[in-house]
Amino acid sequence: MTILFHDTISDSHFPSTSHPEHPSRVQTAWKHLDGLGLTNACKKGIASPASLEQIARVHTDGTIKRAQETCARGGGYLDADTPVEPRSLSAALWGAGTGIAAVDQVLTGNDRNAFCLIRPPGHHATRSQSMGFCLFNNIAVAAQHAIDHHELRRVLIVDWDVHHGNGTQDIFYGDDRVLFFSMHRHPFYPGSGLSSETGTGDGLGYTVNLPIDVQRTGDEILSQFKQRLDRSAQAFEPELVLISAGFDAHHRDPIGGLRIDEEHFRHFLDFVLDVGDEYAGGKVVSMLEGGYNVGVLAECVADHVQGLLQRSLKTGSLKD
Ligand SMILES: [Zn+2]
Description:
- This protein has 320 residues and is α/β, with parallel strands linked by helices.
- Helices cover 41% and strands 15% of the residues.
- The protein has one domain (2-315): Arginase, Chain A, CATH 3.40.800.20.
- The chain has ten helices and ten strands.
- Helix 1 (24-35) packs across helix 10 (294-315), helix 5 (88-108) crosses helix 6 (138-150) and helix 9 packs parallel to helix 10.
- The longest helix has 22 residues, at 294-315.
- The radius of gyration is 18 Å and the shape is globular.
């Protein structure tokens, strides 16, 4: 079965009506999933907020304190793109806690995969800076939890958001236990993500960037994605696969936009699920990142959840 995580606490992060990262992104996607019967078809995930100690495993005390203090004094900006209000902290802690719960449930239960319909997103938050709509790095918190709590040695993070996951790269740049694979438009925000950025120290070779020129067709992008990821996964043999599932590379997205449609996203997912089946016993946890055309996002999320569910039903429970 696929475990589906969602909680209306994510709606409480709503610092600005004009900001593209707003509650209706997730609300509309949830309604669409519900209308298609997918909320009932999946198992309901139970999560709790991440503790500050869990956040501190990937972020500096200063990052946490800045978010706490800015929220406590009524709101403000953590960076030029990242406004917060008093309730933003609870939403962010819940988002990060959801990834932890999903990892726990996928690694210890009979269910192979999970999707976390969360906001705010996380992949731009570096160790020392909340930025780019992201307070805390949800997927990094989840990966670090898999390492610390479940003693995994090889966690693969695949990030296909249209923006480079600079925060996730920063956090694991010197770490050989996490292979960070990012496909993103380049040159584009936040500016990083060149193929020459490959890690440092023990982590050298464990960051793989696939920058995409905006002129590339969706089929060309898909083919590059498969080729590079296949090579990386073969060498790494992940024990767990995490997905930073952003859908802002869709050609109708108002912020990002590459020549990618719903079908391409589905192919990305199916390929990552193949990698999960091949090396990680099918254990895959996917977490929402970007996607700013609300209707398109809902469609993409529904296809994504359908893909996860079809795979989990096809392969059966781990104890079959
Ligand atoms: Zn993005």
